[in-house]
């Protein structure tokens, strides 16, 4: 698969995830938030929690998608979340969590793992 195809599939999955989150009444704060440490696909508010969300889009394999959020990726997400909170102090008193959303394109399925990992 070409790099551009991966980007296109990833962006499509993120769009699907945002639409899904909006149906669950999440307030989207930021998309593709970049820091010196990495990127967070979606930052949203779910009731009183600030949620940092990693989106993985795959053709069919849920386990492969979940395993792609490695320990090193989790550390980058946690550092990026800390950076976001440093730059956006209005959110610093909110409870936070890290979720993973897996989009399975071939099965037209969405799997939302709340509290997928702890920083």
Describe the structure concisely for a colleague:
The protein is an alpha+beta fold. The chain has three helices and five strands; from the N terminus they run αβββααββ.
Number of domains: 1
Shape: globular
DSSP, total strands: 5
What's the CATH topology name? Trna Endonuclease, Chain: A, domain 1
Tell me the strand order in the biggest sheet. 1-2-3-4-5
The secondary-structure class comes to alpha+beta
Q: Please work out how many helical segments DSSP would assign.
A: 3
Task: Tell me about this structure.
It is a single chain. The mean pLDDT is 88. The relative contact order is 0.19. Helix content is 37%, strand content 39%. It has helices at 3-23, 62-67, 71-87; strands at residues 27-35, 38-46, 49-58, 95-104, 109-117. The chain contains three helices and five strands. The radius of gyration is 14 Å and the shape is globular. A hairpin with a 2-residue loop joins β1 (27-35) and β2 (38-46). The protein has a single domain, classed as Trna Endonuclease, Chain: A, domain 1. It has a five-stranded mixed beta sheet, sandwiched between helices. The chain has 119 residues and is an alpha+beta fold.
